[in-house]
Amino acid sequence: MAFWLFKTEPGTFSWDDQVRAGSKGEQWNGVRNALAQKNMRAMTRGDLGFFYHSVNEKCIVGVVKVVSGFHQDSTDPSGKWHCVDVAAVGPFPKPVTLAAIKSEPRLAGMVLVKNSRLSVQPVTPEEWDLICQMGGYGA
DNA sequence: GCCAACGTTGGC
DNA sequence: GCCAACGTTGGC
User: pTM for this structure?
Assistant: First the structure.
């Protein structure tokens, strides 16, 4: 079991869209970055991820689950790019903002802080637990 | 194969 | 809206 973080612009694909996709999920397509592709390739069904809204909101709003293996991105005519399917699991009672993450010393090493431009990122179990606590999620 | 130029992304 | 950081592209 591994943990990830998926970044999206709410104007393009928001948490509400993800919820609307239901338990079957939706392709996390449109990723055109080699490192993000590599991260998705490393995912397996059942992995969990944070759902992060960039731009105006800049906060983690919920948890998603990987519901497929790494497969062809149907929106890519060249067939070069792949993606996984993700489904909404549940919202954060209290969204965790980027500012909150940056002010937490234990999260200073997070990829989100160090490389904010990467759209699909790995999250360590320690980071996962801490952010879930901060968001009032689970437990 | 290397390096510079350019475009895009995202935080502020 | 601006600026900095990063990735990608193209010329050499």
Answer: 0.94
